[in-house]
Amino acid sequence: MSEEVLATVSASAPRRWMAVGIMGILGALLLYIAMTTPPAVLGWQVFLIVLGIVALVFADKTRRATERVVELTAQGLRDSTGTVIAPLADIDRINRGMFAMKPSNGFTLVLKHGRDRSWQPGLWWAIGKRVGIGGVTPGSQTKFMAQMLEAMVAEARAQDDQTS
Q: For the structural domain made of 69-163, what CATH number should be given?
Protein backbone atom coordinates (compact mmCIF):
# COMPACT_ATOMS: atom_id res chain seq x y z
CA MET A 1 0.00 0.00 0.00
CA SER A 2 2.03 2.88 -1.31
CA GLU A 3 1.20 6.47 -0.44
CA GLU A 4 3.25 7.74 -3.36
CA VAL A 5 1.43 10.46 -5.28
CA LEU A 6 1.18 9.39 -8.93
CA ALA A 7 -0.52 12.51 -10.32
CA THR A 8 -1.88 15.81 -9.03
CA VAL A 9 -4.49 18.30 -10.17
CA SER A 10 -4.40 21.83 -8.80
CA ALA A 11 -6.15 25.04 -9.73
CA SER A 12 -4.23 27.32 -12.06
CA ALA A 13 -3.69 30.75 -10.50
CA PRO A 14 -5.24 32.87 -13.31
CA ARG A 15 -8.40 30.75 -13.51
CA ARG A 16 -8.63 30.58 -9.73
CA TRP A 17 -8.49 34.34 -9.28
CA MET A 18 -10.80 34.93 -12.25
CA ALA A 19 -13.46 32.65 -10.71
CA VAL A 20 -13.10 34.19 -7.25
CA GLY A 21 -13.01 37.71 -8.70
CA ILE A 22 -16.10 37.30 -10.85
CA MET A 23 -18.14 35.90 -7.96
CA GLY A 24 -16.85 38.62 -5.64
CA ILE A 25 -17.68 41.36 -8.15
CA LEU A 26 -21.16 39.88 -8.66
CA GLY A 27 -21.77 39.89 -4.89
CA ALA A 28 -20.49 43.45 -4.52
CA LEU A 29 -22.59 44.69 -7.46
CA LEU A 30 -25.75 43.08 -6.10
CA LEU A 31 -25.18 44.68 -2.70
CA TYR A 32 -24.37 48.04 -4.34
CA ILE A 33 -27.57 47.97 -6.41
CA ALA A 34 -29.64 46.95 -3.38
CA MET A 35 -28.30 49.88 -1.35
CA THR A 36 -28.02 52.70 -3.90
CA THR A 37 -31.10 52.13 -6.05
CA PRO A 38 -33.43 50.04 -3.95
CA PRO A 39 -36.41 48.49 -5.75
CA ALA A 40 -39.89 49.81 -4.90
CA VAL A 41 -40.82 46.54 -3.23
CA LEU A 42 -38.88 45.69 -0.04
CA GLY A 43 -38.91 41.98 -0.91
CA TRP A 44 -36.77 42.60 -4.00
CA GLN A 45 -34.25 44.57 -1.98
CA VAL A 46 -33.98 41.75 0.56
CA PHE A 47 -33.60 39.29 -2.34
CA LEU A 48 -30.72 41.34 -3.82
CA ILE A 49 -28.99 41.59 -0.44
CA VAL A 50 -29.29 37.86 0.24
CA LEU A 51 -28.10 36.99 -3.27
CA GLY A 52 -25.14 39.37 -2.90
CA ILE A 53 -24.12 37.83 0.41
CA VAL A 54 -24.45 34.30 -1.03
CA ALA A 55 -22.22 35.27 -3.98
CA LEU A 56 -19.57 36.65 -1.60
CA VAL A 57 -19.72 33.50 0.55
CA PHE A 58 -19.31 31.31 -2.56
CA ALA A 59 -16.37 33.44 -3.70
CA ASP A 60 -14.65 32.81 -0.38
CA LYS A 61 -15.52 29.08 -0.47
CA THR A 62 -14.03 28.87 -3.97
CA ARG A 63 -10.89 30.70 -2.81
CA ARG A 64 -10.41 28.27 0.08
CA ALA A 65 -11.27 25.16 -1.96
CA THR A 66 -8.90 25.94 -4.81
CA GLU A 67 -5.96 26.10 -2.40
CA ARG A 68 -6.26 22.29 -2.22
CA VAL A 69 -4.78 19.75 -4.61
CA VAL A 70 -6.38 16.51 -5.85
CA GLU A 71 -3.90 13.64 -5.59
CA LEU A 72 -3.93 10.22 -7.24
CA THR A 73 -2.33 7.40 -5.24
CA ALA A 74 -2.42 3.63 -5.62
CA GLN A 75 -5.44 3.63 -3.25
CA GLY A 76 -7.44 6.16 -5.29
CA LEU A 77 -8.20 9.87 -5.28
CA ARG A 78 -7.84 12.16 -2.28
CA ASP A 79 -7.30 15.85 -1.73
CA SER A 80 -4.35 17.48 -0.01
CA THR A 81 -6.21 17.61 3.32
CA GLY A 82 -6.48 13.80 3.31
CA THR A 83 -10.17 13.64 2.36
CA VAL A 84 -10.78 10.49 0.33
CA ILE A 85 -12.61 11.44 -2.84
CA ALA A 86 -12.89 8.01 -4.48
CA PRO A 87 -11.15 4.76 -3.52
CA LEU A 88 -9.72 2.94 -6.55
CA ALA A 89 -11.69 -0.22 -5.73
CA ASP A 90 -14.96 1.76 -5.86
CA ILE A 91 -14.42 3.32 -9.31
CA ASP A 92 -16.66 1.73 -11.95
CA ARG A 93 -15.80 3.92 -14.94
CA ILE A 94 -14.31 7.25 -16.00
CA ASN A 95 -16.22 9.60 -18.32
CA ARG A 96 -14.14 12.23 -20.07
CA GLY A 97 -15.73 12.44 -23.49
CA MET A 98 -16.77 15.64 -25.21
CA PHE A 99 -20.46 15.15 -24.44
CA ALA A 100 -20.08 13.72 -20.93
CA MET A 101 -21.59 15.77 -18.13
CA LYS A 102 -18.36 16.81 -16.45
CA PRO A 103 -16.67 19.87 -14.98
CA SER A 104 -14.78 22.22 -17.27
CA ASN A 105 -11.36 20.76 -18.18
CA GLY A 106 -12.15 17.67 -16.14
CA PHE A 107 -13.70 14.23 -15.98
CA THR A 108 -16.42 12.37 -14.12
CA LEU A 109 -16.09 9.15 -12.17
CA VAL A 110 -18.98 6.73 -11.76
CA LEU A 111 -18.61 4.82 -8.49
CA LYS A 112 -19.93 1.38 -7.62
CA HIS A 113 -21.40 2.69 -4.35
CA GLY A 114 -22.84 6.10 -3.52
CA ARG A 115 -21.05 8.53 -1.25
CA ASP A 116 -21.97 11.62 0.74
CA ARG A 117 -22.48 14.86 -1.13
CA SER A 118 -19.48 17.12 -1.12
CA TRP A 119 -18.41 20.16 -3.06
CA GLN A 120 -15.10 21.96 -3.34
CA PRO A 121 -15.97 24.64 -5.93
CA GLY A 122 -13.60 24.76 -8.86
CA LEU A 123 -11.85 21.54 -7.88
CA TRP A 124 -14.21 18.58 -7.31
CA TRP A 125 -17.77 17.60 -6.37
CA ALA A 126 -19.56 14.40 -5.41
CA ILE A 127 -23.27 13.56 -5.67
CA GLY A 128 -24.40 9.99 -5.13
CA LYS A 129 -22.41 7.68 -7.39
CA ARG A 130 -20.87 10.50 -9.44
CA VAL A 131 -17.69 12.43 -8.71
CA GLY A 132 -16.52 15.30 -10.89
CA ILE A 133 -12.89 16.42 -10.98
CA GLY A 134 -12.03 19.73 -12.62
CA GLY A 135 -13.30 23.27 -12.93
CA VAL A 136 -10.57 25.88 -12.68
CA THR A 137 -7.92 23.22 -13.28
CA PRO A 138 -5.64 22.88 -16.32
CA GLY A 139 -6.87 20.35 -18.86
CA SER A 140 -3.42 18.79 -19.20
CA GLN A 141 -3.35 17.78 -15.51
CA THR A 142 -6.87 16.33 -15.49
CA LYS A 143 -6.32 14.49 -18.78
CA PHE A 144 -3.17 12.85 -17.42
CA MET A 145 -4.93 11.91 -14.17
CA ALA A 146 -7.92 10.46 -16.06
CA GLN A 147 -5.62 8.39 -18.27
CA MET A 148 -3.74 7.10 -15.22
CA LEU A 149 -7.02 6.21 -13.51
CA GLU A 150 -8.29 4.38 -16.61
CA ALA A 151 -5.11 2.31 -16.71
CA MET A 152 -5.25 1.56 -12.97
CA VAL A 153 -8.94 0.54 -13.13
CA ALA A 154 -8.27 -1.69 -16.17
CA GLU A 155 -5.32 -3.31 -14.38
CA ALA A 156 -7.40 -3.92 -11.24
CA ARG A 157 -10.18 -5.51 -13.34
CA ALA A 158 -7.69 -7.75 -15.13
CA GLN A 159 -6.32 -8.93 -11.79
CA ASP A 160 -9.86 -9.59 -10.52
CA ASP A 161 -10.65 -11.59 -13.68
CA GLN A 162 -7.53 -13.72 -13.21
CA THR A 163 -8.37 -14.52 -9.60
CA SER A 164 -12.00 -15.37 -10.42
A: 2.30.29
